[in-house]
Structure formats: C-alpha cells, structure tokens
Amino acid sequence: MKSPFLFVFLASFISLSANAADYMIDGAHSSANFKIKHLMSKVAGGFNDFSGEFSFDEKNPKSFKGEFTIKAASINTNNAKRDEHLRGDDFFSAEKNPTLIFKAREFKAAGKGKFKLMGDFTMRGVTKPATFDVEYLGAGKDPWGNDKVGFSAVTKINRKDWGMSFNKVLDTGGFMLGDDVELDIQVEGNAKK
C-alpha cells in the first residue's frame, strides 16, 4: 500500500518545480559595475562581457539557483592605459584567470522584496564566500510577450581577500587605492523557451 504522505510530498515537490522558471541574463539590459577609492575620489568601472543563468520562483524564492560569469579582460573604466594595467598581474591577471564566477548557494528573505544571496565568488583563481544584498524588481512581460524578471544586487568585498594587493604609498601618507570594492550587479532575465 502506497503512503498518502509520500504522494502528497511528491505532488507538492512537482508543483513547486513547475512554478520555477529558468532565465538567461539579458546582457543588453543588465550591468556589472564596481567602485573603488582612488586618492580623494572613487573610480567607477564595469565589465562589457558577462553572462549567466538562474532559476527563480517568486512563490518559493529559497529555491533560487544561479551562476554569473564575467570575462576579466572586458574591464572598462573609460581609460585604456588604466584598463590594460587592471588586466595585468597587479590586478585581475586576466590572461591566467580569464573569468570571474559567482555561484549561488543560498537565497533567503530579508524583508519585503529584499533578499540575501550567498555564494562562492572566484576571482584571480581564488574562491571565497560573498553575500549580496538583493532587491527583487519584479516580473512581467515585455511589449513583445517575453517573460522577464529583474534584480538589483550589491555588495562590498575586500580585494586583498582575492590576492589583489597592489598599491602605492603616498608621499603625504596613506595609500593610493582603497581595499574595499563596491560591486553593483543589475540583472534583467529572459525566460528560457
């Protein structure tokens, strides 16, 4: 005799799985940016080449799964000489470590429309945990009938934790660069068909 509990459990699992949707990051409407203190200001930059996939169910957000990949060589701070330096061994070491990868491990509620996204962030061949503060921006159809979903994710990391320790001491004291890097990821996902 089959257990009715087992039947109900399996039916619930199948129902939850059916509600989850798989998305591809829409690169034309998403961005991967950063800021870091430089002397007496903050320098902003971003990456032009990134991709990712994720699974999200608004009714069961903790089931979130995803991976986000950035090509290190695509860094862009609107200064060619600086970008070339950033691609080198002092910073991203893009030739030896061509990608930055974030793999989601846990997605939990942190208020209405707010979440904490925990995962493993790999940069320069070093993998460390990172936590993003995420805002769910909503879901719906675009004018062409495609299903969309959007998120804003921010965090702050210490670049030295990933072996990025290059700096210069200033004659007046202190350092040219800060250690903390603000990451700002804006994601619009297209539902897979």
Strand ordering within the main sheet = 1-4-5-7-8-9-10-11
What is the distance, rounded to the nearest whole angstrom, between the alpha carbons of the first and last residues? 39 Å
Number of domains: 1
What Rg is obtained from the alpha carbons, in whole angstroms? Answer: 20 Å
CATH architecture: Beta Barrel
CATH topology name: Lipocalin
What would the average pLDDT be, to the nearest integer?
Answer: 90
**What's the total helix number?**
2
Element order, helices and strands? HEEEEEEHEEEEE
- Residue share in β-strands: over 45%
Based on CA inertia axes, which overall geometry fits? Answer: elongated
Provide the helix percentage: 10-25%
CATH class: Mainly Beta
User: Uncertain runs with pLDDT below 50, 5 residues or more?
Assistant: 1-18
What's the story with the biggest beta sheet?
Answer: 8 strands, antiparallel, barrel
CATH homology group: Lipid/polyisoprenoid-binding, YceI-like
List how many beta strands DSSP finds: 11
SS-derived structural category: mainly beta
Ordered list of secondary-structure elements with their pairings:
Elements lengths: L3 H16 L1 E5 L5 E8 L2 E7 L2 E7 L8 E7 L3 E2 L3 H8 L11 E11 L4 E10 L2 E16 L5 E12 L18 E15 L2
Antiparallel strand pairs: 1-4, 1-11, 2-3, 2-11, 3-6, 4-5, 5-7, 7-8, 8-9, 9-10, 10-11
